[in-house]
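Milestone M4 deliverable, item 7.
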Amino acid sequence: MSTNSVEALLTTIEEIPLVDHHVHGALKDDVDRSSLEELLTESDRPIPQWMTQFDSQLGFAVRRWCAPLLGLPAHASADAYFERRVELGTPEVTSRLLKSAGIGHFLIETGFRGDQIHGLSGMESISSATVGEVVRLESIAESLAWEGVSAADFASAYTARLALATENAVGVKSIIAYRHGFDFDPIRPSKEEVAKEAASWLRLVAAGYSLRVSDPVLLRFFLWSGVDRGLPIQMHTGYGDPDLRLEACDPLLLVPWLKLIESLKVDVLLLHCYPFHRHAGYLAQIFPHVYFDVGLGTNYTGVQSLELIKESFELAPFSKILFSTDAWGPPELHYLGARLWREGMGKVLGAWVRDGDWAEEDAIRVVHMVGRDNAVRVYELGEK
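Output delivered:
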């Protein structure tokens, strides 16, 4: 019979001020019901009229955990929830949910639709948390193209702009998973290759085509520029919207590149990883410079996230696992990312302690490592 106490463990899980090492801003403006539901899925397709996104693991989690914070009973109907959300207004809803998340430090990546969300100062003000910035590598190139940089100057301009943009940043992020996939040539591209592909891309931009960079040579150049910068590199991995090819986002495809950069002592943080979280755990065990989280998957798997959290503890050393929400937009995602993590950690680690497989003091150490201390070390946040 399981008899070991877990009271101190559960208290620690509830009270620890988390470091959300990969997150985006919360929405600045009100949204209608349809827009809110579209932000509760990674699909970019219209939601059919015969269904609601509230009938999903994430939707049920919103009604279970967020409703009480808005003054409703747990499991309030979707209609009642949205009506109360409108009644309170976006600033109040956002303040309640962000402050209730218990996140002490947000590391914010602002490269995606930044005009719709709170930036660094806005997030700091509305959440009362400390914030740090993570710079998206692809955004640097797109800003240069918008300004009319020449192909001849592109590489040097990119390097200079990246240095400037990251003066006060804690890390950089690559979305090569979205733009190409991980099945790329791992070798650093030559100056000639970069100049040639930059000329082709910039001609398209000048002709009115999208700023989006999808050329694998340029994407590799950005990635290697990030390595040269020396900051931790975040990489979207696995689950995301239909803009990516999920089969090409398996982190095992990164092994050749990870081996090439291993001696350069730059940490790589694999984000989200679902459904490849076991592969990410393997890489974190094998390579000293690889870390991972299961952030995005935690929200979207709802009550089943405890199984995801449990599986994330199978192979990787506990010093290689981090906490994140990857929340963008609705503050429900920021709150739930933390709430579901706390629930999952309590149930998973609590069971191991009760069964005598773990000592409670060890479980408490692991909570501090994953929830906060690993991020403080990797990103050199200097917190006590």
